[in-house]
Please model this.
Amino acid sequence: SNLSSPLGVISNEVPGYKPYSTHKLRHGDLAKDLFNSSVDLYHQLRARFVQRHSERMAWFLRERRWSDCFVLGLHVRTGNGEGGEFDTKKRGIPDLDLWTREAASTLATFLRRYRHSKPPLLFIATDMSRVVGLL
Model:
């Protein structure tokens, strides 16, 4: 996904990366090696992203005054009409309106129970912009 800023566009896509899944593997060395390899790759990608985009990230955090807020992050993956494995595994959200109402209710309950001295700020990462408006 991309983020527009006065400093340009931040892209977190990884060219040529093909994800692997350990859910089909039996327990054992291969699964552990694959998991450890994925963890290593994540750390390398994160370090590379931070190194390449630290100035843009700092701008983003300053612009939205994150240090003045209690930030809650929510990643909502709807599939955005995607087919293939996403569809066959039924990973989508069948009723987005209902899901967002329930998510909003859960977040409100959380904020009532766990009060913070700073005002809340909800950061939403999603593949469908409609989610932002619904929450």
Notes: DSSP finds four helices and four strands in the chain.
